[in-house]
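Notebook entry, structure prediction.
Reason for the run: the old model in the group folder had no record of what sequence produced it. Starting over properly, with the input documented here first.
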Amino acid sequence: MKSPFSFDEMIELLRTFTPRAEIILEEVPAPQKLATYSFAFTADISNGLQADAEEEVASGRFVILHEPGGQETWDGDFRCVSFMRADVDSAMQEDPLLPEVGWNWLLDSLTATGALYNAPSGTVTRVSSASFGKLSPRNDDSEIEIRASWSPLISQPSEIFSHVQAWCNLMTEVAGLPPIPDGVASIGSAKRRV
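New structure, fully documented this time:
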């Protein structure tokens, strides 16, 4: 089924997407061999504090692929491919249900923004690091990584926003940032690297 709009039209609209202030988006080269058309950006998420107190708490990558006529496993003409990683506390990292919870965070984020999709797939990985020798003064690190893809059901270019917003919401939730209530603007301005 032919898309009723051009991929370039959707990308131009995507470039106007403005996330909450703690998220810095940067357009990056997209993978070229996965589909005829592709677009990608990365996100770095800070804790929202200022100056020396600011630190990165999560990062990720979002790719939108378009193959006219689709691919067999996609169940559609478009595919969202995402990755995110965030620091978690050691108690969360040790929870045996963390992978299932992480996957449900993704699905709940898509549902909360009204994003319609088919064929979700992915992995949730716990990463734990311990430091030794000269690095032993460092704290041990724990992270969660969520790699996921799904086929967005979009009939007009603006409908991609709900998918990107879901991905941003997922990253901020996993990173432990408080949600911004509906109708309330975040303090500060969104940053975009060029």
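Summary: The first strand starts at residue 23 and ends at 28.
The old model has been moved to the deprecated folder.
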